[in-house]
Amino acid sequence: MKYNLAYKYRIYPDEERRILIQKTFGCTRFVYNKILAKAKEIFEAEGKNKIITPATLKPEFQFLKEVDSLALANVQMNVKVAFTNFFQKRTAFPRY
């Protein structure tokens, strides 16, 4: 018989890591909203599902270079999945 196990971990980061975690969460929210706004603009103008990359935002917003690029890349994939689900009539239009 197989059992599903779950483990809970609690971390206690030092002040430097706590700041980095907070910056990462803040930047991912910021990038999600910026990518979604641009995708919404393109959708309303052309009716297409086109998603910009976080790298296109970095020259304008230098603070995005301080956080891990993979976290920002995951945000791009999340927006892409949200739009794909919308176009396949699985869910409503993505929101902020």
Top keywords for this entry?
single chain, 96 residues, mainly alpha, 53% helix
What does this structure look like?
The protein has 96 residues and is mostly helical. The chain has a domain at 32-96. Helices cover 53% and strands 0% of the residues. It has two helices and no strands. The protein is flat and about 45 Å long. The mean pLDDT is 89.
Helicity, as a percent range: 40-55%
Radius of gyration: 17 Å
Average residue-wise pLDDT: 89
Total strands: the figure is 0
Oligomer: single chain
Low-confidence stretches: none
Query: In whole angstroms, how far apart are the ends?
Result: 44 Å
Largest sheet: none
Shape: flat
- Strand-residue proportion: under 5%
Number of helices: 2
Order of helices and strands: HH
Derived structural class: mainly alpha
Give the SSE map.
Elements (H helix, E strand, L loop, with lengths): L14 H32 L22 H19 L9
Helix pairs in contact: 1-2
Q: How would you concisely characterize the structure shown here?
A:
The protein is an all-alpha fold. It is built from two helices and no strands. About 55% of the residues lie in helices and about 0% in strands.
